[in-house]
Design a protein that fits this description.
globular; alpha/beta; 6 strands; 3 helices; RlpA-like_DPBB; signal; Expansin_CellWall; single chain; RlpA-like_sf; RlpA-like protein double-psi beta-barrel domain-containing protein; 116 residues; Barwin-like endoglucanases
Amino acid sequence: MLSNSKSLALVLVLVASLGVARAAHGDATWYNPGQGACGATSSSNDLVVALSSSAYAGGAHCFNHITVYYQGKKTDATVVDECPGCKPGDLDLSPGAFSALESLGAGRIQVDWEFA
């Protein structure tokens, strides 16, 4: 019985280390970046993202990278801004990052994302 408990504990540690809890799902829209809440100035071609206020966490994730997944495509983006109007899990991507996943005309897409 003790070996089963140790095996279970090992499995739980391994599952926790996979980072599954860091994955999120939400809507992605696009915006024209400029001076972001992190203090950097970005252009439309830069692969940058604004996180919801809850994910932005007062700037704790400034300049961290995320990977965004959409219908078999993915792109990486750097956190440079906060999106106060976004719901938890939602993202506001630069045109460069959004267009790596879908045409800007789509306007809003459902994505999965995680910190890289």
